[in-house]
Structure formats: C-alpha cells, structure tokens
Write a structure and sequence with these properties.
Adenylosuccinate Synthetase, Chain A, domain 1; two-stranded antiparallel ribbon; about 25% helix; 2 helices; 3-stranded parallel β-sheet
Length: about 100
C-alpha cells in the first residue's frame, strides 16, 4: 500500500495544504491524516470556493477520503464542527 507524507521545514507558509488538496484530487487516498495545532492553518481554493482550515486535512476535496485527526493534535471542538459543516464532511468521514 503506497504512502505519501508531506512535510515542511519552514514552520508553515510553504504550500503544504495546497499540495495535499491537489494530492487528494489526483490520488484519491483512502485516508488523509492531519497532525498539528489549532494555530496552524491551510487555505484551499477549488471550483471558485475558498476554505480556511485549521483542523481538518486539506484533502477533504476528495469526497471518498476519510479525514483523520492524529492523536495529540490540538483542536477546538467548535472549530472542528464548523469546518465539518463548511466542507460538507459529515456522515462519518472524520475520525480521531
């Protein structure tokens, strides 16, 4: 089973979120995991829409991908629920 890991070395602003959203569309992964913190964010632009994410993985664009929040990742539950609604990621797609 192939595995792709996207890692940055400059503490953000490298475009990791854009790369991951592209890979979500191109590769249609079964699972996408985000580790990190509530203070980090990604902006995803697709089909004329823009999402600013702080918790969910950027590959939510792939509707068949399960979205996982890694153990130890910092989050705010209200922000998580808002992102699930805004991205249409309901129905058991988000796991922790």
């Amino acid at each position: 089973m192939p595995l792709t890991v996207v890692v940055g070395g400059w503490f953000g602003d490298e475009g990791k979120g854009k790369v991951v959203s592209y890979l979500g569309l191109a590769d249609k992964p079964g699972i996408c995991v985000r580790t990190g913190s509530i203070n980090a964010g990604h902006t995803v632009n697709y089909n004329g829409r823009t999402w600013k994410l702080r918790i969910l993985p950027s590959c939510f664009i792939s509707e068949t991908t399960k979205l996982m929040i890694a153990p130890g990742a910092l989050l705010k539950i209200d922000v998580l629920f808002r992102e699930i609604e805004e991205t249409g990621s309901r129905g058991g797609r988000v796991w922790g």
